[in-house]
Please model this.
Amino acid sequence: MTEKLYYQDPYLFSFDAVVLDITTFHGAPAVVLDRSAFFPEGGGQSGDVGTIASVQVYDTQVENETIYHLIKNTDELQKGSTVHCSLDAKKRFARMQAHSGEHVVSGIAHRLYGVNNVGFHMDDTLMTVDFDKPLSKEDLSAIEREANACVYRDLEIRAWYPDNETLASLDFRSKTEGLRNPRIVTIEGVDHCACCAVHLRTTGQIGLIKILTSASHRGGVRITLICGICAYEDYVLKHEHTLRIAEQLAAKHNETDIAVAKLLGKEKQTRWLMQQRTEQMLIYIKRATDYKNGNLLFDFSGFNPDELKTAVLILKSCCSGICAAISGDDETGYYFAMTSDNIAVKDHTKTVTAALDGNGGGRFDVIQGRLRANRDKIRDFFDNYTVN
Ligand SMILES: [Zn+2]
Model:
């Protein structure tokens, strides 16, 4: 049984301890100390990382009250020796900010809207929290505002073990059937929750609480949540992006959405103009093309599939057989479209795609697809293919 220093002082980030055992944890090399400030994975929070002497601890786990510090190489440690141990303090503090922030949000959501936290996942930047009932954008916004107000009030966060009588009358979250002697984490007036993890002493240390996204999930809602130093770093990153976008659009940083809407409007107008010009050009080509008995193939490099379709529909009256158009090159292959004024091109799809190593299909009178044969072969095929 390891003495749990993290419960005595969650801010203890370095300590001395005696190596009791060098062993394995489910096959992985591990060290057991007489006392430890390394929090083992639990309550949705990852196991601490850091160093024991000069050896890197990449994870911490617990089994039967014994804490296992997982390491890659056991050679440098000796049973019975006293070692100096250090946690990755920045990581641990950020995790406490996140986890305490999650309690605030879940407690407020429960109090305001009667929803229960039914799923919680935490990585080193973001958390996901699943609530069992839907919450609107307005509900989530109200929860977020109240959560941040709770940070400004700098409320005490306290872990305690209530006696059976107190427990029976206590309305706390994470009530699990058969939970004996639970550790309750209380934020006065905000939340009581059964939780084994390490928390901050006051809500003021959580810093910013921000709900980033929400989506429907199993009849309820899944939110992504960010707190503390991670929320600050996220703000810095997004603000840098916003400033760069604003600069490129020559817009104020809080009016980039208006500038983007304008830009998209212009782009739509440009696309419409391009389409008009393409159609005009195709009509000129049609006037300049002599009628042909047989098939006609047009090579329109740079055309997209929609433009190829427009082309064959405009030019089909220039021939008696199949009117086809291609766009592409021998290396990457060709898009194609084909139609006819006189025959059902659908009946010829298989023959064309089989001969030209392609695939295609289409409803109504235009067949579209891809061809992998080279340009000369495609040209030869349409020159010599007889449709009737
Ligand atoms: Zn918790």
